[in-house]
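Is this the right way to post structure tokens for a design question? Let me know if I should format differently. Anyway, here goes:
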């Protein structure tokens, strides 16, 4: 006799010829009832999930839009049929022989292959009491958690392809495919207490049930339910097969929103399940997963439940027990189970916390390990004496702020240590980072070594060169030789500099990328400073570090770092982007951080005004007025998302328009990201020298130069920029003694945009704005595309400072016990860290 699956396979063959849903009279969905009956008789309740999965797909088939979709569905269904469990208890031969052989044969365990277990029980039972084997258990359980998803029963190549679209390739991926959200159907109520509009679950007996045909040709299945307190009706449209599933006298569970029809409360197409089954889709916090075509919600939930039930217990926990206990974390298998199928909100919260903590803990261990590696290379302890430090500070033309002093003290301690410094110096534009760096460089030179500072543009290098010259020349007892090296320095002059660096007669080198060119050989570089660090790639930073000290007599021109015993220089990187603490720990967790959170005294805060598009004329008049007073202005063009090219074109047009119609009598310059480096430099230089009145620029060009005479920053399309970026723009004015202004012209009058911009108007605190920006836009947007290599975190929220700090604390404490992750007990953690950081070797 033909088995039900063979019968259905034949039907599908027939259907596949035309894909018109004609193989069964009235459509394949009509066949669901027959299928359910026959398949249950043939395969028994242990195959219930598989039977239901086929039924779901049959049901869905008849509502597919076109023959292409139907064709695809037939393929999937045929595949599903090929994973048939053979009839009754029996020798279920494994269909999964293709699972790759294990690489670790020692781990072979015999897996429970037969017989398949009865279907789940109501969840009120303690899970431990459930019979162990589960249909999804692959026979080769030893292939473990890394097995392809096809090792799970009911997942054929077609479904696997679809799951792959969701990023699920292995069982491990499946367990880590967390719900998008949850529908809370945990509220169980008697029928007489349900209220219109609420999400609720009832458990009731079916009093009556039947299908009715409508005139339009569709069907309505209606069931009358009672739980002794009252009656309620539930209705499903075009699900004729339910007549075979929901029968009079049966106990079922209904979850959904309470509706109303002709004055009676009712349910329309609610979720439902028979009561005797373990409840997945009703009466609980129901997980909602992201789906894709061909992956249905119920199918996914059932597959997930089987996977989680079997595999969560087998998930190796990489978290050391000591850490887990100290942080009060849930164990991994409970957390995995609870995040997918939470028993209640509290357990869900704890599960999420545990798994988010995991992610950040691994991240932090990775960062600390990185820091450990930096520190393990030998550094040169510089003999910095207090008298020199004192002298330098007292000869400065101003008094250092508290924050500058604090940062300098931290740096000095690093310079004296024989571990190379690896420090980020953070401070708002104008907070005086250069002076701090200059002090560190002066001390290095006084200690008999060389120092270098790299900046992203020629003009900025030039500016630093002059500043450093002024500050260092007042050092009593020393007059260090400072040289500038940029792309424009060539020929004889460049040769001289190379020679001076190699023989030690040049003490300080300032410049652009030219510093990391091959010919540059220092005699004893002990301190490398990088300004505007985000403008440099990881490799460039590493290249500068590699110009470090090398033992006497190392052959000239040899490849850098040829001598493994060479020293790494102390490294100081500077950034003007204030970074909220939680992000700082996440991105810069491998570095030490000093913050200058105080402005030099007497700085007039920049006055910021928010203007509507209709007030643009006023803004122009204001600009003109300032220029008449002998000052200069910046105008920033709106951010264009599409591309730098489009943005550049917009800027060119804007420049033309302003020159021709608005400011014909003034000298306007233009700066955009598509210009050649030397043209940019030339324009910036003209502006700095006062040969231009207004500089029109796009956002890609950070005008990282000091032009004290510039007093107005006009930002067009201000609503398109992040708050932190607006604050950066604003920092380009107010650098002299003149009162300065920032005018934000917004294209958008939406209340949200206005509110965001009002925050910039209201505060000059870069850190507060950065925090707000991060909260509003999330870390991806906040950091922009420049910071690649940002860790991929599924659950952890990097704006959650408390969580980030907890993970950091735990990682620090753990790290002290095993910095090399060499203890065999920590093998799993070490693997996990390696996996997480794979391909992320590019972080700073
Ligand atoms: P940034 O942090 O943006 O690099 P700079 O180092 O360029 O800031 O400093 C901005 C200006 O402030 C410079 O003109 C510098 O001379 C001046 N400055 C720095 N520190 C102080 C201070 N403690 N008191 C007064 N002026 C200072
Ligand atoms: Mg600076």
């Amino acid at each position: 006799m033909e088995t039900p699956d063979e019968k259905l396979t034949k039907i599908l063959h027939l259907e596949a010829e035309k894909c018109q849903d004609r193989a069964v009279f009235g459509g394949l969905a009509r066949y669901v009832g027959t299928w359910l009956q026959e398949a249950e008789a043939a395969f028994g309740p242990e195959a219930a999930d598989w039977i239901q999965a086929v039924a779901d797909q049959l049901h869905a088939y008849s509502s597919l839009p076109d023959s292409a979709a139907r064709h695809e569905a037939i393929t999937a269904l045929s595949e599903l049929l090929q994973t048939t469990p053979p009839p009754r208890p029996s020798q279920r031969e494994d269909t999964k022989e293709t699972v790759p052989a294990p690489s670790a044969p020692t781990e072979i365990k015999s897996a429970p292959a037969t017989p398949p277990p009865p279907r789940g029980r109501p969840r009120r039972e303690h899970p431990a009491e459930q019979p162990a084997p589960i249909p999804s258990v692959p026979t080769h359980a030893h292939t473990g958690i890394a097995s392809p998803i096809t090792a799970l029963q009911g997942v054929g190549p077609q479904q696997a392809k679809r799951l792959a679209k969701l990023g699920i390739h292995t069982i491990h991926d499946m367990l880590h495919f967390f719900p998008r959200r949850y529908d809370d159907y945990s509220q169980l109520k008697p029928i007489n207490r349900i209220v219109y509009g609420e999400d609720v679950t009832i458990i009731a007996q079916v009093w009556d049930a039947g299908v009715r045909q409508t005139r339009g040709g569709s069907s309505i299945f209606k069931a009358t339910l009672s739980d002794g307190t009252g009656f309620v009706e539930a209705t499903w449209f075009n699900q004729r097969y339910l007549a075979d599933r929901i029968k009079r006298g049966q106990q079922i569970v209904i979850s959904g929103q309470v509706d109303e029809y002709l004055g009676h409360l009712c349910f329309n197409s609610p979720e439902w399940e028979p009561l005797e089954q373990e409840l997945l889709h009703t009466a609980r916090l129901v997980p909602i997963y992201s789906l894709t075509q061909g992956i249905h919600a119920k199918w996914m939930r059932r597959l997930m439940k089987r996977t989680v039930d079997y595999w969560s217990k087998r998930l190796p926990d990489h978290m050391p027990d000591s850490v887990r206990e100290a942080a009060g974390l849930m164990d991994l298998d409970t957390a995995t189970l609870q995040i997918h199928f939470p028993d209640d909100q509290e357990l869900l919260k704890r599960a999420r916390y545990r798994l988010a903590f995991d992610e950040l803990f691994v991240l932090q261990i990775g960062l600390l390990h990185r820091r450990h590696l930096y520190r393990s290379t030998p550094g040169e302890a510089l003999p910095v004496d207090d008298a020199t430090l004192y002298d330098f500070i007292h000869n400065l033309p101003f008094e250092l702020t508290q924050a500058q002093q604090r940062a300098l003290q931290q740096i000095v301690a690093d310079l004296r240590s024989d571990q190379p410094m690896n420090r980020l110096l953070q401070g708002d534009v104008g907070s005086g980072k250069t002076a701090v760096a200059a002090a560190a460089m002066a001390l290095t030179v006084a200690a008999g070594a060389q120092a270098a500072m790299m900046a992203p543009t020629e003009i900025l290098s030039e500016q630093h060169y002059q500043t450093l010259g002024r500050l260092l020349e007042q050092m009593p007892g020393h007059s260090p030789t400072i040289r500038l090296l940029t792309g424009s320095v060539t020929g004889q002059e460049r040769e001289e500099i190379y020679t001076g660096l190699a023989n030690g007669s040049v003490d300080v080198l300032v410049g652009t990328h030219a510093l990391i060119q091959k010919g540059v050989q220092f005699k004893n570089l002990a301190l490398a400073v990088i300004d505007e660090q985000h403008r440099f790639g990881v490799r460039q930073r590493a290249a500068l570090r590699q110009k470090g000290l090398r033992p006497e007599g190392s052959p000239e021109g040899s490849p850098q770092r040829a001598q493994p015993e060479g020293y790494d220089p102390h490294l100081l990187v500077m950034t003007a982007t204030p970074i909220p603490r939680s992000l700082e720990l996440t991105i810069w967790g491998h570095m030490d951080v000093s913050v200058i959170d105080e402005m030099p005294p007497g700085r007039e805060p920049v006055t910021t005004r928010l203007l509507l598009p209709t007030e643009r004329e006023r803004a122009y008049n204001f600009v003109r007025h300032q220029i008449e007073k002998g000052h200069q202005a910046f105008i920033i063009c709106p951010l264009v998302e599409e591309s730098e090219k489009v943005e550049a074109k917009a800027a060119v047009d804007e420049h033309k328009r302003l020159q021709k119609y608005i400011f014909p009598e003034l000298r306007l310059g233009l700066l955009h990201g598509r210009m050649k480096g030397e043209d940019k430099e030339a324009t910036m230089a003209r502006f700095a020298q006062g040969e231009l009145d207004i500089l029109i620029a796009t956002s890609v060009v950070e005008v990282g130069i000091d032009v004290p005479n510039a007093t107005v920053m006009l930002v067009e399309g201000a609503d398109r920029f992040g708050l932190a970026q607006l604050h950066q723009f604003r920092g380009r004015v107010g650098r002299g003694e003149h009162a300065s202004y920032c005018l934000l012209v917004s294209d958008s009058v939406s209340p949200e945009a206005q509110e965001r911009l009002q925050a910039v108007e209201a505060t000059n605190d870069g850190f507060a704005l950065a925090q707000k920006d991060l909260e509003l836009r999330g870390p991806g947007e906040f950091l922009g595309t420049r910071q690649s290599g940002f860790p991929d975190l599924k659950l952890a929220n990097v704006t959650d400072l408390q969580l980030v700090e907890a993970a950091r604390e735990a990682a620090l404490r753990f790290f002290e016990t095993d910095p090399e992750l060499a203890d065999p007990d920590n093998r799993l953690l070490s693997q996990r860290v390696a996996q997480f950081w794979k391909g992320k070797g590019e972080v700073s």
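Format looks fine. Someone answered above. Worth noting: Residues 629 and 758 are 28 Å apart (CA to CA). The longest strand covers residues 199-213.
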